[in-house]
Amino acid sequence: MLVCIVAVGSEMLTPFRLDTNSLVITERVNAIGGDVRLKAVVGDDVQELVRVLTAAAEWADLVVMTGGLGPTEDDITRDAVARIMNVPLDVDPRIVDALGERFARRGLTMTENNRRQALVPRGATVLDNPNGTAPGLWIERGRTAFVLLPGPPREMTPMLDAVIRDRLAPSAGGAGLFRRVLKITGRPESEVDAVAQPVYSKWTAQEVPIVTTILAVLGQIELHLTASANAREAADRALDGAVAELQTVLGSSVYSVDGRPLEAVVGDLLRARHLTIAVAESCTGGLLTSRLTDVSGSSDYVERGYVCYSNRSKMELVGVPESTIREHGAVSEAVATAMAEGAAGRAGTRVGIGITGIAGPGGGTPEKPVGTVAIAVVVDGRATIRTVRLFGGREMIKFQAAQAAMNLLRLTLASA
User: Is the peptide bond before 361 cis (omega within 30 degrees of 0)?
Assistant: First the structure.
């Protein structure tokens, strides 16, 4: 089932409003085998909307539209659909009566323009809207079914679920698109693709085909695996095998195959080993501690965090020797190690992390350019140390530094 999603509303062509309905619609139709090939946002222009819908009707099995069903002149979705169907708009007296009763229950008088919501393209089926005033519509032209849904999510989602349940799912017979996401860190996108592509390229021709998409996200790479199958059991078997193959070739750089973020993976490792952690951060300014504590239940393993931005704070809060800073510089593996050891020692934890670096845009030198970050992880007195060179603006460098520190902790714990 090829699917097109169209959001109607000029407000979504401004910087102030975002179409989020399409994400919900995509999830729901994927679950019954729908393949979303196009998403469009169209302003309140009936001619433009007619052009988009006419083009979609040439290839789509299902067009899901949201918005433009209200009572005002710029609510043009019904008009556009009537035009491409070449049918008139009829007033449905049942909708008029229902609207009148709804207003009366609230002690209000229905204005004349609300009758626009009772206009129905001839031949369409009205979809009840118990959560709002604008009913939805279902109408077919040839191979293509058009579903018209209200824009507010609290009205759109229940109506969509009813359409899926009553009209679309029965014909799907359990078929669907089923997904897994592998999350990878510590390797660039080009390297990940060079290693993984020979593995996943053959999956499109197997009995349960799998399509793989590679996506670069700040601090990590994601491999999205989508299996098309007649039943979840078949998809799970194929995806389990695919994930295992990718884990074999990508090794320890794969940190999640079940959707967990890196901070949750690290937290589970700490909890499983009954370890607590203290963090001393300079260039990340508390970001690593913040991310660790984003996980519910992180009080089981996060003891405390120190923001040691100045040299004075490094010495006073976690006991970095002044001589170490003088000899090696504040951004050095020696200082990062002393920060990690000092944090763990003063907090009484078995794990400590130290991060020190140059987030920019100033402060770099030829020997230590902007983006130079030294990281140390200490577990039971044994230090694992790494210096990384990161790129981007200040916020990007801070995020990547926290990501690199968490990944170094993950690798250290996994090998312990």
Answer: yes
